[in-house]
Design a protein that fits this description.
Blueprint: H1 19-25, H2 29-43, H3 57-66, E1 76-81, H4 89-95, E2 99-105, H5 108-121, E3 126-130, H6 133-136, E4 142-148, H7 153-160, E5 164-174, H8 178-184, H9 186-191, E6 198-202, E7 211-217
Parallel strand pairs: 1-2, 1-4, 2-3, 4-5
Antiparallel strand pairs: 5-7, 6-7
Helix pairs in contact: 2-4
Length: 225
């Protein structure tokens, strides 16, 4: 008996080439598509994304990142904490060309990647800064701080609020336990000058899982310890 042939595994992204994705991003699509393609080509090799994530980059990662953009200012300075592979920072920069987007990342190999990506995509509004939030307190002040999959909300308050002007907002991408995190961090947020945290369900392309966004405005400037 001959060997049984097996069907090849389809590892393509079902959203790649979907016209709805291009329509959603509009003018930002060429840069976002370029970012997607760079992640496909080099993301796994450089340890930025896992192999299983490649077929779901659009839905699970790029559109998930884009869901934060409607809650960000169109101008001013936006700081992305722990940018990693550039999610959401690179996506934000492509969709908010009128804002300065600071990608704050402590690992050198990742800042090298972020610099290469922003230069290749022609994102002139990107500033890549190697360091942690604590390292730039007092030096950088932003209108908004974004963050995705970095830490619990109580830690994010301590890191993000010193980087925000009064009236600026922390806008964090969170999962299904967003309300629990908000409640657990409520006293810390209030002590550090944060207002009432909003948990917003944000949608992008029909059929793509909705994203939970936590938005908190820094209403008062207090010392952070």
């Amino acid at each position: 008996m001959g060997e049984t042939e097996t069907e090849p595994i389809d590892d393509s992204d079902p959203l790649d080439g979907d016209p709805r994705v291009e329509a959603y991003f509009g003018d930002a699509f060429p840069a976002v598509k370029g970012f997607h393609d760079l992640l496909v080509r080099e993301g796994v090799l450089r340890g930025l994304v896992g192999p299983r994530e490649v077929p779901r980059l659009w839905g699970r990662h790029i559109l998930n990142s884009a869901a934060v953009v409607p809650f960000l200012p169109e101008t001013g300075r936006i700081i992305d904490l722990g940018s990693g592979a550039g999610l959401p920072g690179i996506v934000v920069a492509a969709m908010r060309p009128g804002a300065e987007v600071v990608l704050l990342e402590p690992m050198e190999r990742r800042t090298d990647w972020l610099t290469e990506v922003s230069e290749e995509l022609g994102l002139r509004n990107v500033v890549v800064h190697r360091g942690r939030a604590q390292d730039v307190q007092g030096d950088l002040i932003a209108d908004a701080v974004t963050v995705r999959a970095v830490a619990s909300l109580d830690k994010l308050y301590r890191w993000a609020f010193p980087l925000l002007r009064k009236g600026g907002a922390l806008v964090a991408l969170k999962g299904g336990k967003a309300e629990e995190e908000v409640e657990a961090a409520r006293h810390v947020g209030r002590k550090l000058g944060g207002g009432q945290a909003e948990v917003i369900t944000a949608s992008t392309v029909e059929g793509v899982e909705e994203t939970r966004v936590v938005r908190v405005v820094r209403e008062a400037v207090t010392s952070v310890r």
